[in-house]
Specification:
20 strands; 35% helix; single chain; alpha/beta; 527 residues; 19% strand
Length: 527
């Protein structure tokens, strides 16, 4: 058994753990980042599942990564390159399609083709949502204060929050409150009439949650995804060169250049506690690492119910973490192709293949998919968000061949009878059959496919429940309630132990804000 000493130990080399480690190393601290797998990245990884075909295995698009993190860590210098996803096309059952193109006027004409009323409403809707997103965006950089505390830090935090609220107009405040509590279906029904338009927009409100578009709170999830930007362009989405593994590879390269040590195949067994304080970690191989600070970038269940014995936390805190909802609802099907899928709505190679392709014909279609998941079944007519990364980054597949990434809802973690090979195969077949309705040649060009359920996400990426956000974006799991009341400031009831993962404020997605904010709080306490 060997013992090493550091200033800070980070558990988990997902993007938040890497970012936290990089910021601490940037401040001159001796940092080690520990990853249980043989590669870094957590759920943001790129792997060659079939020879020559590279897949962004879990997360697959980039938009929410905070621009200040990109600047601070000089990520472009370390290989980060984001390629825009210029369009979204929704194929329709009648052979037609709805498209959002890169330019405003073609998109407006496209909507007008289906509904003049919606074309008139679309611009104002975009302005309203952009204003709401920009109004709430500063909250992403705030450390949530505890409203029940009289400590100076929390009182100053509440004052800062109050100053932020005062800076908003009355209309903006009402709009934000409404968006946080409303369903995406109710929101969109107020604005639009065309079913494929409403269905496609509502899909952003269900990602990472075990909710349907008619569920209250999904309008906020929609807004959460509206806050993306690339190079200053608001509401822009992109694909990273070399997949999302390219994002975490750039962050890891930056962290190493700054001085952080990253260890792979370093699975943590438990946090070492002495005299009521976290003082290090014990690895599965028997090694011990000691440090002044330990931070977990794993999900809340693993961080507080697995790595640390419950006796080191108040009973109420343990109960709150047990009740924190992490139900995985999303599956992924990654497909290796010998050619391009031929979509009936836009035959031949077209701009459709370089953007997102959304199977979301209506709000009711998605709600019915949710109904099946509620009762323990995967959706037989699922919502699918597809991209063909090899059309954007030719290095993802052999020449003339392609890879296709399919994000699918719903695939409940707690499927009736549990996930097994037969259910996984049936789920994969359902996805292929659904795509086949719009791209009849899909089966003929499949070279191989990888079907990932929430159970697989838990097994491979180590995320409890297979929830891609480490916890649902529900009203009672946001801001000063994430992951638990009184403990949303990245500290924990165990001195020396910090929490900086997607299960912390401000939530999931390849955003990095939690890792950055957690590192800043560690440095404040250090001073």
């Amino acid at each position: 058994m060997s013992v090493n000493t550091y200033d800070a130990i980070i558990i988990g080399a997902g993007h938040n753990g890497l970012i936290a480690g990089a910021y601490l190393a940037r401040a001159g601290k001796k940092v080690v980042i520990l990853e249980r797998r043989e590669i870094v990245g957590g759920a943001a990884v790129t792997e060659e599942i079939f020879p020559g075909y590279k897949f962004t295995e879990f997360s697959y698009v980039v938009s929410l990564l905070r621009p200040e993190i990109i600047r601070d860590l000089e990520l472009p210098r370390h290989g980060l390159k984001i390629l825009p996803l210029p369009s979204t096309v929704t194929p329709m059952d009648n052979g037609d399609y709805l498209a959002a193109w890169p330019d405003h006027e073609p998109t407006r004409r496209e909507i007008y083709r289906h509904s003049p009323k919606d074309a008139e409403a679309a611009d104002e809707y975009s302005r309203v949502m952009a204003r709401a997103a920009k109004a709430i965006k500063p909250v992403l950089s705030l450390v949530p204060p505890d409203p029940s505390s009289l400590s100076l830090r929390d009182m100053l935090g509440l004052l800062k929050l109050g100053q932020y609220a005062r800076s908003l107009s009355e209309k903006e405040l009402y709009r934000i409150v409404k968006l946080v509590t409303q369903s995406s279906a109710d929101l969109l029904n107020e604005w639009f009439e065309f079913d494929p338009l409403k269905g496609t927009k509502s899909a952003s409100g269900i990602i990472g949650t075990f909710l349907g578009p008619h569920s209250p709170g999904t309008a906020y999830v929609l807004l959460h995804h509206y806050m993306g930007e690339i190079d200053g362009a608001f509401r822009a989405w992109g694909f990273a060169k070399n997949g999302t593994g390219g994002v975490t590879a750039a962050i890891a390269a930056s962290a190493r250049a700054i001085g952080a040590e990253i260890r792979t195949n370093a699975s943590v067994a438990n946090v070492i506690v002495k005299a009521g304080r976290a003082v290090g970690v014990a690895l599965e191989n028997g090694d011990e690492l000691h440090a002044k600070v330990v931070m977990s970038a794993a999900d809340p269940k693993r961080s507080f119910l697995s790595f640390v014995e419950s006796k080191h936390f108040p009973d109420e805190f343990v109960e709150q973490i047990k009740n924190f909802r992490v139900r995985g609802s999303s599956g992924k099907v990654n497909i290796a192709l010998s050619g391009l899928p031929e979509f009936t709505c836009l035959p031949g190679e077209s701009p459709l293949h370089k953007g997102a392709i959304s199977i979301s014909p209506s709000i009711d279609y998605i709600e019915r998919a949710y109904d099946e998941a509620k009762y323990g079944q995967f959706s037989t007519n699922p919502y699918i968000d597809m991209i063909i990364p090899s059309m954007i980054d030719r290095d993802m597949a052999p020449p003339g061949h392609h890879v296709m990434s399919c994000f699918v809802q719903y695939a409940p973690y707690d499927i009736e009878g549990g996930w097994d090979d037969a259910k996984r195969d049936a789920f994969g077949e359902t996805v292929i059959s659904t795509i086949e309705r719009y791209a009849p040649n899909i089966r003929k060009i499949i070279v191989g496919k990888q079907v990932i359920t929430p159970k697989d996400i838990e097994r491979i990426a180590g995320i409890t429940g297979g929830n891609i956000f480490h916890g649902e974006l529900l009203l009672h799991q946001l801001f000063f309630l994430r992951p638990a009341p009184q403990w949303a400031d990245f500290r924990t009831p165990l001195p020396g132990y910090y929490f900086g993962a997607s299960g912390a404020h401000p939530g999931g997605g390849v955003m990095g804000a939690a890792g950055k904010l957690a590192a800043q709080e560690v440095l404040k306490d250090w001073r």
